[in-house]
Structure formats: structure tokens, C-alpha cells
Task: structure prediction
Amino acid sequence: MHIDSARLYRSIDDLGRIGAYTDADSGLQGVNRLALTAADGEGRRHVVARMHALGLTVTVDAIGNVYGRRPGRNDALAPVMIGSHIDSVPTAGRFDGCLGVLGGLEVIATLNDRNLATERPLVVAFFTDEEGCRFGTDMLGSAVATGRLPLEEAWSLTDLGGKRVRDELDAIGFLGDAPVLVAPPHAYLECHVEQGPILAAKGLQIGVLSGVQAISWHELTIRGTSAHAGTTPMELRRDAGVAAARINLHLREMIASGRFGEMRATMGCIQPHPGLVNIVPGRVIATVDLRNPDDAAMGDSEAGIIGFYDRVAAEEHVGITWRQTARTPSVAFDPDVRARVAAAADALGLSHAPIISGAGHDAQEFARICPVGMVFVPGEFDGISHNPRELSTPEACANGVDVLLRVALGLAE
Ligand code: HGY
Ligand code: MN
Ligand code: MN
Result:
């Protein structure tokens, strides 16, 4: 039994048209469905309509997570859940997250086509603000659903414009009333594009996830003194821009030192104020994104960069305050479900290998409350992602969702 590859890819293209934009840098058509914007709301309604068309019973919870349920022969049993996200970064392609949600719907459509019932119920879900880049913390909806973040705390998060999660949920009509703590599914499955170069480089069709690396996000406020670029002697400056630049370069030096394992670091946001050519920036908002597959090395890298904040503050005569906006440890996925994913790939004659995810996923939140398995599919152009060039072929997507179908059926019987 195979899914309908053309139908799957059409559904990816259809959703990808919602929030579409022409990317100024590349000229490519990208996707911007930033969490809880009007475009996200439109994308959500599009997917909910597909859930209804597939006969699913849809519930929306108080953080805007959406669950589409297909009853099982024994409907009292815990369901097999297939989930991911459909919110995107502002410069996205059409696969990140969407492949997992639309792949889940394709699994349902394939079973409906054959009028096949399963012992356990099946649930296809998408979670609020997986990306985290608007309100500051990633896997927001799934973290609330699995009890890591309290609902009130999630509701009160604000974006850089001061808009609150709760108000934005209400504005797009997804401030649901279902309770947020999800009953632990029998298992949780997620199919996702790899978003990196490993599978393609090795000519592999499927990645069998062993887990996800640790993530740590800091938001820094660096305060100096805005001053005249021409008249202010260098020794009198308190330049917040130089302080941010030194921190950014120090991250590179830490990685080059080899003392922090496979550390990755990114200063994705560097917002100078007033940000004009002839004024020394008096304030900079900057973010630090640390990733590491090893929790001890992550801890060492956090201590190292925090110590450097103090050193730069002293040497550049600026004030640096920072807050931890996201922090998740490395997560290992369930060995039995991993074995099922590998066995499904074998049964389908698909080449596969274990892989650790470089990106965070909703699956890692569910790993605290139930067995979890993830399936990766390779991407083109070194698997580039968070970029409109993101592309996985129809065949690659169908392979991943075929594996998803087999594993879901095996778990649901
Ligand atoms: O940042 C991440 O790893 C994911 O894209 N939210
Ligand atoms: Mn994703
Ligand atoms: Mn992403």
C-alpha cells in the first residue's frame, strides 16, 4: 500500500500558496506564515477544511493547537498521533513542518480510499508557533500540550511589537476552548524534511531519527550611548554595535577552539538603535542561538558565552542584560519506534541511516509523555531550509510519508 504521491505534493503546493511572497534576495517564491499572523490563520483554516473533508473530528485547544481525530475500531484506546507544524519563518519554503501535517492527512486519505479501519484512533495535529521566532520560544504549542510550559505563561509571551500570544490567537479565531494538556498518545510520529545536507550527501532516502540536539536561546539587550559618529573620539564611545559584534565573533572562536564538541552558534537578530549611518548605536537587541548534541558541552558553551558578556560589558563600557528565551536538552527517541521506522524503510526498499536532528521539532516535546519516532526526507541544494530555496522532490516526500503510513498502521493495530 502506497500513499498518493501526486495528491500529497499538490497539497504541499496548495498550502504553500498561502502566505506566498516573492523573495527580494533570490527572486524565488517563498512562504511567510509567521505564527498567529493573518497568513497563519488562513493556513490553519485551509488545513482544518481538509481535516473536515477527510471526515476527521477537529478540536482546537486554548493555545491554538489543532487535532483532527479519526475513530478506531476500539475508540477508547490511546490514539497514534501524527503531527508537526504549519507556521513558518518569514523566509520559508513550503516543506518545513507542512510535510508532516499534510503527510498525516495523506495517510488518512489513503486509509479512507481503501475504507480501512484501524484498531486505535488516529489523530493528525498541528501545533502553535513551532518556529518560535515571533514570540521568542520554539515548540510553543507542543510544549504547553505536554506540560513543559504553563498555558498562562505561553499566553502572556509578546512579540517585538508587544502583541500578546493570547490576543493574537483570538484575532485569528484560534483561541480554542479544549483543555491544553493532551492525553498521552500511544505513540507520536513526525515526518520532516532534514533541513541539512547529510542524507543527500550519502545518497540516502530516509533518515531514522535517533533524537534531537540541545537548544539554548538568549535574547540580549546591550545598552551603550548613542553619539555623533564624527565628533565623538573613539576612547569616549560606548558602542553597543561593537559589543554585539565582539560577542558574535567570540562564538566563532569558541567553536574553533574545539572545546565545545559539535557546538553551533548563530546571532540571527542584531537590531541596532537608532540604526543610522552617523550615530554610534546606543542600544542593540541581539539573539544567541546555541545548538549542541552533547548536553555537557552545551552547558560549558553557555557558561563560556555568558562569561564573555560580562567581559565585553566591562571592556566596552556598555550594559548587557540577557534572558533565556528557549532551552531544551538533547532528546533521545524511543528505540522501538526507531526500529519500526527502519523496518518500514527496509520493507519499502528504501535506503536509510540513523541521524540526529539539527533542528528542534514538536516530536521532542512528546518524547516526554509517549514513545516518539521521526522520519527525515532529504532536501535539494544541501537541504537548505528557512530559505525559499527549500525543496524536496515528490519522490522524496512520498518515500517519507509511505514510511509514516506503515509505521502508523503497525502501531495502530
Ligand atoms: O529552530 C529550530 O530548530 C526550529 O526550526 N524551530
Ligand atoms: Mn520544522
Ligand atoms: Mn523551522
In short: The mean pLDDT is 98. The chain has two domains: 5-212+330-412, 214-328.
